[in-house]
Design brief:
Number of helices of chain B: 11
Helix content of chain A: 40-55%
Number of strands of chain B: 8
Radius of gyration of chain A: 20 Å
Number of helices of chain A: 11
Largest sheet of chain A: 4 strands, mixed
Distance between the termini of chain A: 26 Å
Low-confidence stretches of chain A: none
Oligomer: heterodimer
Helix content of chain B: 25-40%
Shape of chain B: globular
Largest sheet of chain B: 4 strands, mixed
Largest interface: A-B, 43 and 48 residues
């Protein structure tokens, strides 16, 4: 097996990271994110504009000939690490990755137009498949009659800010639907920074962009694989912030971080973060190179990264003591995102089950 | 400047002058050392060419392709990995000239006389004494956990030369002749039944001052070089998927469906993922080293592998069911190397318990990660300014 992916970051990728981090430092502080979750606009349209139109990052996966940047999943992964570190309220993963990947599996003029719109960031897209569905998982399709769609879909991430929805129908087609033509009802989301909604289609005119099955599978695989980078960012923030706090916080006349019981927990967490970085880079590189090993790499990354992100956020909350339990401290945003991420695009258990088939370790 | 092309040319020259098919193994290795192709990053005349360390891979690949003999790095690991860099860093010109060549060729095996029954993780608390008598030092004490002592020609040794100063300051570093009549090596039998390690008793062993490494009382600093190199040695090798302990258990799972249970399946998949991720981490570390960006990751690798090996081998014993009640061989053997794959699951389970103790316990390594990588405050040191002789024992 010749599976030696490039697991490092290139200089260009580090420069990209620095640029994204600068933007987020200036425009995405924790207090602002918390305040926004309680407002009518949980997303930050100006930040989205800066990231997509200003920096061109919504189009990284789209070839230059189709209006994008012609970059790869490796660069997207770096962007997602930073967005995860800032728990940024942006539809990047759902629109610039998942919806974009779905369209990249389709053809035609309408598809090209949509793709260019998504790549520019002026249009936000959402795949109308519940966020909990993993690659290869069962997803709900709506009824189609003479080019009109009927049905109700739940758990659709970022539907509330989408301009266009990509909807799988029972006839096997993937349809593009104008968001204005459907009813989008926000659900009360566990993750305040990536809300889910119900989408109701009541005889909506829709345009078929391609076959649903390959498009959805491709989109969810990329989503799952790159989610690991977001989880890496979340976990890295949780560790870094907790270490910083424990060096300052004193109890029993000593910095709390000097107690061995806590030091060992943080060192253990560091090791998990280091491993997550290798797993996430592995998946990003496999997706970027179209490696034969992609399915395994994605399943490994997701099965490993999801529990680590949750563990890191849980440790961060616990080790911040009473402060960690407050609404004003941002750690709850990370815990909620990490826990929701552990379900998004398939649970760790679902990915392990997929692996059983992929690497021939069959169930009894 | 020695670059890859130059090294390839020199390697081909060596092969032409000493064809592996018709040259004695040791002669070939000596010629390779003399050509500066043993460890290319070492200085001219000492087996190297002062080239970048990463270029060693170029030489190794050429030699492997030509079917050249190697110097069996696993068998002489302590010499290569620990004694050599320390001698290079602190030895006199004479010491470098005398010791490095036979060490690298493998004619002389080295062992490490560091740990003592009362000084394991707290190594600087060691009590083996070295007392000056004319041009010699007279050594008395006991060392333990000494691998290869029964086959070693030389040892690196740390001993206390000044008990009146705090423990880190009164230590001196020596090269000890294992054939000295005062050196007694006794096998130390382990939980596995075999005696991979030894106890070494040192009674009036005389070491000439010319075999001292570094300054008197500076032994702790010299030992840091040895210990740092002990941990650097990981990460050089590429491991294929299922290359570690997860390999045999996965194979058994595939071949023997009658052993499968749902509980074991869940645990196996979880460990398979962890083993694959640990492998990727090792690969990432290797890539960082090659790219000249060494990270802190190495500090954590051993921690991860120790726990994984223990969990995987424990699962394997359970998977075997009735066969897990058996053990392949309890006779006291004296292996030169740890043989994880040549023995059965029960052996792997028992031997892997040592993985979280040898080369630094996991508890100490977690402290090291917490303090040196994360920058957390260090443990309170109550022994810092106390003379060694006044410490409680």
């Amino acid at each position: 097996m010749s599976t030696q992916p490039d697991l490092l970051y290139s200089e260009e990728e580090e420069a990209l990271r620095a640029a994204v981090r600068d933007l987020l430092t200036d425009h995405c502080d924790a207090a602002g994110v918390i305040a926004r979750t309680e407002s009518d606009t949980p997303y930050d349209p100006e930040l989205w504009k800066a990231l997509s139109e200003g920096m061109g990052l919504a189009g990284l996966l789209v070839p230059e000939s189709q209006g994008g940047q012609g970059a790869t999943h490796r660069e997207v992964a770096v962007v997602l690490e930073e967005l995860g570190r800032a728990v940024a309220p942006l539809p990047y993963l759902t629109s610039a990755v998942v919806a974009t990947e779905a369209l990249l599996a389709c053809e035609g003029d309408e598809t090209a137009k949509l793709l260019a719109g998504l790549a520019s960031g002026r249009t936000v897209g959402a795949l109308a498949v519940a966020l909990s569905v993993g690659p290869g998982g069962h997803y709900k399709a709506v009824r189609s009659e003479d080019g009109f769609l009927y049905g109700e879909l739940t758990g659709i991430a970022d539907a509330a800010v989408a301009d266009v929805l990509l909807v799988p129908a029972e006839d096997g087609g993937l349809y593009a639907v104008d968001a204005d033509a459907v009813t989008i009802t926000p659900q009360v989301s566990f993750d305040l920074t990536r809300p889910v909604a119900t989408v109701t289609l009541d005889g909506v005119r829709a345009h078929r962009v391609g076959a649903a099955e390959p498009a959805v599978r491709r989109a969810l695989r990329a989503g799952a694989g790159l989610l690991a980078s977001e989880q890496l960012g979340l976990a890295d923030w949780s560790l870094t912030e907790t270490v910083r706090y424990l060096k300052e916080r004193k109890q029993f006349n000593r910095p709390v971080g000097g107690f061995q019981a806590l030091k060992h927990r943080l060192a253990q967490l560091w090791l998990e973060v280091v491993n997550t970085r290798a797993a996430a880079r592995g998946a990003a590189d496999a997706l970027a190179t179209g490696s034969d090993d992609t399915d395994v790499s994605v399943a490994v990354a997701q099965a490993y990264a999801a529990p680590v992100a949750v563990h890191a956020a849980e440790e961060a909350l616990q080790l911040h003591g009473g402060l960690g339990m407050t609404w004003e401290h941002p750690v709850h945003l990370y815990l909620k995102r990490a826990k929701a991420d552990s379900i998004a695009y398939g649970t760790a258990g679902a990915h392990r089950e997929a692996l059983a088939g992929l690497v021939d370790l069959q169930a009894p | 400047m020695t670059d890859a092309a130059e090294l390839r040319r020199r390697t081909q020259e060596l092969l032409a002058a000493h064809p592996p098919a018709t040259t004695e193994r040791v002669d070939f290795l000596k010629a390779r050392f003399d050509a500066g192709l043993a460890w290319v990053h070492y200085p001219d005349g000492l087996g190297g060419l002062g080239a970048p360390r990463t270029l060693q891979a170029v030489v190794d690949a050429e030699l492997e392709a030509a079917g050249a003999p190697d110097n069996d790095p696993r068998r002489i690991g302590i010499g290569l990995g620990m004694a050599a860099p320390t001698i290079l860093g602190f030895g006199t010109e004479e010491q470098k000239r005398d010791f490095l060549r036979p060490l690298w060729v493998g004619e002389e095996v080295w062992c490490q006389l560091f740990s003592e029954p009362g000084a394991g993780s707290d190594l600087a608390a060691l009590g083996t004494r070295a007392v000056r008598e004319g041009d010699d030092w007279v050594i008395n004490g006991q060392k333990v956990w000494t691998s290869s002592a029964h086959v070693a020609r030389w040892a690196i040794l740390i001993a206390r030369t000044d008990p009146d100063v705090p423990k880190h300051r009164g230590i001196t570093y020596f090269i000890c002749d294992m054939t000295d009549p005062g050196v007694e090596v006794r096998p130390l039998r382990q939980v596995t039944g075999e005696a991979e390690f030894n106890e070494v008793f040192l009674t009036d062993v005389r070491i000439p001052d010319a075999h001292r490494l570094g300054e008197i009382g500076d032994g702790w600093r010299v030992a840091q070089t040895t210990l740092m190199n002990e941990r650097v040695s990981i990460g050089g090798m590429r491991i294929p998927r299922e290359g570690g302990m997860i390999g045999p258990v996965s194979k058994t799972w595939r071949e023997r469906p009658e052993l499968r249970t749902h509980d074991l399946h869940q645990r196996l998949l979880k460990l398979w993922v962890e083993a694959e991720v640990a492998r990727l981490s090792g690969e990432r570390l290797r890539q960082q080293l090659v790219a000249g960006q060494p990270g802190h990751e190495g500090s954590g690798m051993k921690l991860g592998f120790a726990r994984l090996n223990q969990e995987i081998s424990g699962l394997e014993v359970e998977l075997l069911g009735e066969e897990g009640l058996l053990y392949d061989d309890w006779t006291m053997r004296r292996p030169e190397l740890v043989d994880f794959t040549g023995r059965d699951a029960g052996y792997r389970y028992l031997r892997s318990k040592g993985n979280s103790i040898e080369g630094g316990t996991s508890e100490v390594l977690l402290n090291i990660v917490a303090e040196r990588v994360l920058g957390l405050p260090s443990e309170p040191r109550t022994d810092k300014d106390v003379a060694w002789k006044d410490l409680a024992r």
